[in-house]
TrEMBL record:
<dbReference type="GO" id="GO:0005737">
    <property type="term" value="C:cytoplasm"/>
</dbReference>
<dbReference type="InterPro" id="IPR001623">
    <property type="entry name" value="DnaJ_domain"/>
</dbReference>
<feature type="binding site">
    <location>
        <position position="190"/>
    </location>
    <ligand>
        <name>Zn(2+) 2</name>
    </ligand>
</feature>
<dbReference type="InterPro" id="IPR036869">
    <property type="entry name" value="J_dom_sf"/>
</dbReference>
<dbReference type="GO" id="GO:0031072">
    <property type="term" value="F:heat shock protein binding"/>
</dbReference>
<feature type="repeat" description="CXXCXGXG motif">
    <location>
        <begin position="226"/>
        <end position="233"/>
    </location>
</feature>
<dbReference type="Pfam" id="PF00226">
    <property type="entry name" value="DnaJ"/>
</dbReference>
<comment type="function">
    <text>Participates actively in the response to hyperosmotic and heat shock by preventing the aggregation of stress-denatured proteins and by disaggregating proteins, also in an autonomous, DnaK-independent fashion. Unfolded proteins bind initially to DnaJ; upon interaction with the DnaJ-bound protein, DnaK hydrolyzes its bound ATP, resulting in the formation of a stable complex. GrpE releases ADP from DnaK; ATP binding to DnaK triggers the release of the substrate protein, thus completing the reaction cycle.</text>
</comment>
<keyword id="KW-0862">Zinc</keyword>
<keyword id="KW-0346">Stress response</keyword>
<comment type="similarity">
    <text>Belongs to the DnaJ family.</text>
</comment>
<feature type="binding site">
    <location>
        <position position="215"/>
    </location>
    <ligand>
        <name>Zn(2+) 2</name>
    </ligand>
</feature>
<keyword id="KW-0235">DNA replication</keyword>
<dbReference type="InterPro" id="IPR012724">
    <property type="entry name" value="DnaJ"/>
</dbReference>
<keyword id="KW-0143">Chaperone</keyword>
<dbReference type="GO" id="GO:0006260">
    <property type="term" value="P:DNA replication"/>
</dbReference>
<feature type="binding site">
    <location>
        <position position="193"/>
    </location>
    <ligand>
        <name>Zn(2+) 2</name>
    </ligand>
</feature>
Length: 392
């Protein structure tokens, strides 16, 4: 969408956020509305599809810092927009707008000193007079970035996976190729504005200009619109992509698919598609960066006497030696059994030994434990605390 087409649109209202909303608040609002109004969830609902397109259009501007800055500047200079368009100083309702760019922009081929930034902003929004206006009006614009979510299990996150992704999103109309005209026809240059998208009139020393009503500021007229996209050049379609999840991907990490976002305008490059990955927790394993973690219950005898236990891994099982006299809660490391990334980085398996205390004892076990307690009666496991209690 060109900046000129922003006139009359309130993107903040479309997303239900304030004009000082943060980038995260804007993203959160867009994701909520896009999910609620997604065509896949609202088959045959034209109103939901219209809302989906509107919030996607709003997010395409407000998620881009440079576009948002330009849009905010226009709102500050000319009003906050609305059904009647931006309010221009010196122009009544429907009476045309005062083109400040004619004063502070380029006049006679030379830029006026001190107003370069303002002239650039206004020129970008409403075009220059003469031949430059048409060039600005039809300036190609990169497509907006798009974000979607996928959910994978723990093992897929560790080892990597290739997933099909079904996506419904705005894309270049396949019927008209993006020009908005019915196949076999072409858009024609607007005879009213000669393709500039603006009509101008003079009043004394001032020049007034407004978007051309015949072509709605586009510079071209489509006599026979494309039946699929209704002349917009963009339609919502469903496509299937292949997403390669790299080994070791983290929960909430984003994967970029270049050129798979919204189509560009005027032949410009499309935006990118960002796939946000959500990893389901594993019932046994945890994760710390590239290390896998597991808690293994062991008996008191195994901790006191030492021994060898069998520990599961994602590929199978390994034998792990428990040293004699090991304390409960100690962490043992199994080298090379963690997450392996494509760059050669390799994590380990961290095994936490947890002393398993039986809730009930049979007579034989109780007798043996009581005999052990008697044998260890001279050994104080809490000498520091004992000294404190006796006041030493």
């Amino acid at each position: 969408m060109s900046a000129r087409e922003w006139i009359g649109k309130d993107f903040y209202r479309e997303l239900g956020v304030s004009s000082d909303a943060t980038a995260d608040e804007i993203k959160k609002a867009y994701r909520k509305l896009a999910k609620e109004n997604h065509p896949d969830a609202n088959a045959g609902n034209a109103e939901a599809e219209k809302k989906f397109k509107a919030v996607s259009e709003a997010y395409g501007v407000l998620s881009d810092s440079s576009k948002r800055k330009e849009y905010d500047e226009a709102r500050r200079l000319f009003g906050s927009g609305g059904p009647g368009g931006f309010g221009f100083p010196g122009g009544g309702a429907g009476g045309g707008g005062f083109d400040v760019g004619d004063i502070f922009g380029q006049a006679g081929g030379q830029q006026q000193a001190g107003f370069g930034g303002l002239g650039d902003i206004l020129g970008g929004l409403f075009g220059r007079r003469g031949g430059a206006a048409g060039a600005t009006a039809n300036r190609p614009q990169r497509g907006a970035d798009v974000e979607t979510d996928v959910r994978i299990d723990f093992t897929e996150a560790v080892k990597g996976a290739t997933l099909p992704l079904r996506l419904s999103s705005p894309a270049t109309c396949s019927t008209c190729g993006g020009n908005g005209a019915k196949p076999g026809t072409s858009p024609r240059t607007c005879s009213t504005c000669q393709g500039s998208g603006l009509v101008s009139r003079s009043q004394g020393a001032f020049a007034f200009s407004e978007p051309c009503r015949d072509c709605r500021g586009r510079g071209t007229i489509i006599d026979d619109p494309c039946p699929e996209c209704a002349g917009e050049g963009v339609s919502t379609r469903t496509r299937t992509l292949t997403v390669r999840i790299p080994p070791g991907v983290a929960d909430d990490q984003r994967i970029r698919l270049a050129g798979q976002g919204e189509p560009g305008r005027g032949g410009a490059q499309p935006g990118d598609l960002f796939v946000r990955v959500h990893v389901a927790p594993h019932p046994v394993f945890g994760r710390q960066n590239l290390d896998l973690t597991i808690t293994v219950p062991v008996s008191f005898a195994e901790l006191a006497l030492g021994g060898t236990i069998t520990v599961p891994t994602l590929e199978g099982k390994v034998s792990l030696k428990v040293p004699q006299g090991t304390a409960g809660g100690r962490v043992l490391r199994v080298r090379g059994k963690g997450i392996a990334k494509r760059d050669g980085a390799q994590g380990d398996l961290l095994v936490t030994l947890q002393a398993a205390i039986p809730s009930k004892l049979d007579d034989k076990a109780r007798e043996a434990l009581e005999a052990y307690a008697e044998a260890m009666s001279e050994h104080d496991p809490r000498p520091e605390i004992t000294e404190l209690l006796e006041g030493r």
